[in-house]
Amino acid sequence: MIQFLLNQELRSEHALDPNLTVLNYLREHLGKSGTKEGCASGDCGACTVVVGELHTDDQGAEQIRYRSLNSCLTFVSSLHGKQLISVEDLKHQGQLHSVQQAMVECHGSQCGFCTPGFVMSLFALQKNSDAPDSQKAHEALAGNLCRCTGYRPILAAAEQACCNKPQDQFDSRQAETIARLKAIAPTQTGELNSGDKRCLVPLTVADLADLYDAYPQARLLAGGTDLALEVTQFHRTLPVMIYVGNIEEMKRIESFDDRLEIGAATSLSDCYTALNNEYPDFGELLHRFASLQIRNQGTLGGNIGNASPIGDSPPLLIALGAQIVLCKGNTRRTLALEDYFIDYRVTARQDSEFIEKIIVPKGVPLFRAYKVSKRLDDDISAVCAAFNLKIDNGVISDARVAFGGMAATPKRAKNCEAVLNGATWNSATVEKACAALAEDFTPLSDFRASKEYRLLSAQNLLRKYFIELQTPHIETRVTAYV
């Protein structure tokens, strides 16, 4: 059984189909049709809901952390121990919520189909903002698409909703909601079981290891932003899943003198501060990693584990020399991330083995990263590049150059590195290294970019890296190219 709050209503579910998304649960099981399906792939934001979780702030105070999610990519099992808020829950005692009223007064809606998603993103923004901030508003709404109005009136609604925000029913019930969430906090493995399909929800790494050993055919579910597409886009059935999002050990970020250790189930939003503090380019890239809804849901371990050749984090982590800790039963092994990827969607992971954490070295001063995509926000990379050179007295002593989108896996450019290692750091060396990239990669052409464009972009990014290190004041990191 799993338990969660639907606004303030306690829901206990056991026999639901584990492949059921929160979107379809709301619409088909509860008759709450305000949440819309636009794309079923996490791109349009029409299905946005907000999930509240217990959270302890830096001062040790218990709070509810509200985050926007794409309900079309969220399986119901991931709600275990949390609070689900949909657009129907905002109106209170006959009065529109302040974010709804702002949308009305600022003329932020026309056909209205996308409006519930915008309202929920604005609600989450209001809960997480103390004052109007245009940058945060753009970030909060980047994952919501509108075909009618343009975005100026919606951004005006964001400013109005976050300026002198009034107390709402969620504020007045906060203590009560905290108490209710604590009362339903999971204490043992939860389960959804429809007879022919099941999803297990363990609470510890040890329990996960035991379950995965017992069900080696199970699919591990973390954020679900990639896995859920198998259900929503390809109409496949997932007979057994194991949800790892309630394992606190796998959501920790620990900082040591020489490294960060990031639990594989840590959301990309939660990774941001630690990675940005150490490597601003990594932080900039995370700002452009899909939408805020996806970053609130997707995990660093999932972005590695799905072995996509266009995942944004692996090239950066490979260039930094990151490692992963793999767990199987009581056995753990540490593997260089670059050795994890073998071929297209093929990895070195053994049966019943899972990524427990990612180890990211600290202290890499000349690390830079760049993302090439058609759109600045909420778009997949055509090419993602990361550079990490050690330069002593003008001579390159160690070069790590990694790319995504250029091959069947994220990988290092070994021929390029061979040219750079031991050479003088100058434009002639860079041009030789650019030529060597043609030996490292034979990229494919697809709807994102042609093979010629990809190779030329990769070469130009190396040139850009050289220019920025020579003249850091003109730096423009993680730039989008059109």
UniProtKB/TrEMBL annotation:
It is an enzyme of class 1 (oxidoreductase). The keyword Lipid metabolism does not apply. Its EC number is 1.17.1.4. SUPFAM superfamilies: 2Fe-2S ferredoxin-like, CO dehydrogenase flavoprotein C-terminal domain-like, CO dehydrogenase ISP C-domain like, FAD-binding/transporter-associated domain-like. Keywords: FAD, Flavoprotein, Iron, Metal-binding, Oxidoreductase. Gene3D superfamilies: 3.10.20.30, 3.30.465.10, [2Fe-2S]-binding domain, CO dehydrogenase flavoprotein, C-terminal domain, Uridine Diphospho-n-acetylenolpyruvylglucosamine Reductase, domain 2. Residues 1-90 form the 2Fe-2S ferredoxin-type domain. InterPro entries: 2Fe-2S-bd, 2Fe-2S-bd_dom_sf, 2Fe-2S_ferredoxin-like_sf, 2Fe-2S_ferredoxin-type, 2Fe2S_fd_BS, Ald_Oxase/xanthine_DH-like, Beta-grasp_dom_sf, CO_DH_flav_C. CDD domains: fer2. This is Xanthine dehydrogenase small subunit. It comes from Pseudomonas yamanorum. The lineage of its organism: Bacteria, Pseudomonadati, Pseudomonadota, Gammaproteobacteria, Pseudomonadales.
